[in-house]
Amino acid sequence: MSNQFHQVELQVNGEPRSCSPHTKLPEMLEQLGLNPRLVAVEYNGEILHRQFWSETEMKQGDNLEIVTIVGGG
């Protein structure tokens, strides 16, 4: 039941994205096809510590920078 008039518009890595109101950060990462355990997130210019992800709700105009953590060997 997606209602286009109630979508939250935000930027993810410089690209316009939208999501449903009240979407929490872990849900947003899943919608983007990302594994939350393998990314670091900058939320509106600040590194967002993982302990706050579940309480961080996407809001109109938010800016996310998401970096995938790559293991090497």
Automatic annotation (TrEMBL):
Superkingdom of the organism of origin: Bacteria
InterPro entries, per the entry: Beta-grasp_dom_sf (IPR012675), Mopterin_synth/thiamin_S_b (IPR016155), Thi_S (IPR010035), ThiS/MoaD-like (IPR003749)
Transmembrane segments: none
Pfam families listed in its UniProt record: ThiS
Cited Gene3D superfamilies: 3.10.20.30
Location of the region described as Disordered in the Swiss-Prot/TrEMBL record: 1-20
Full protein name: Sulfur carrier protein ThiS
